[in-house]
Amino acid sequence: AQSVSQHNHHVILSEAASLELGCNYSYGGTVNLFWYVQYPGQHLQLLLKYFSGDPLVKGIKGFEAEFIKSKFSFNLRKPSVQWSDTAEYFCAVGKWDTGTASKLTFGTGTRLQVTL
Amino acid sequence: DVKVTQSSRYLVKRTGEKVFLECVQDMDHENMFWYRQDPGLGLRLIYFSYDVKMKEKGDIPEGYSVSREKKERFSLILESASTNQTSMYLCASSHRGNQPQHFGDGTRLSIL
Description:
heterodimer, A: mainly beta, B: mainly beta, four-stranded antiparallel beta sheet, 57% strand
């Protein structure tokens, strides 16, 4: 069974600091990769996704992620965080499936706290 | 904009009760999913459905069942609620294949 690891459980940064959240997965086949964000009291929202092509993916709110196939990694980055980025971030991996439903395996999440 | 609506934000039930959690989506999505979210464990898939009356077990189906009689509605059933089922339950939907999932606001369920 595939697994997804997010090694940073809780990250505290000051505004304007740079952010990098790690995500590693174990599945060796073709995968789809996602980062979701959950702001306090809100539902999970898609930040960005990677299916194929350019391994550097840009998402909403200035976030980007880089897929490094040889390292089984999909790390999330933002050059300068804002207080409003305080949230929980989840990495998710789905096996490529041309059929029915793409099941996702989620990491355990990283809680980001941005201080003023 | 996609709307996934879960019937309750908060629910309190007693052990042994049969509990129904309802989810409705308005985007004609083929796929629907139920997860539970627990601190430190992330999201874990309970069941999913890729078509009306079709269902497949996820990673933690024990103690749960599901029903999908209409395309837009996916119900999660706790046959006999137990305290270890106290959790946040999230419903999601997506188009067929590898499309991103859209999530509801969640139901925080407490079993006393």
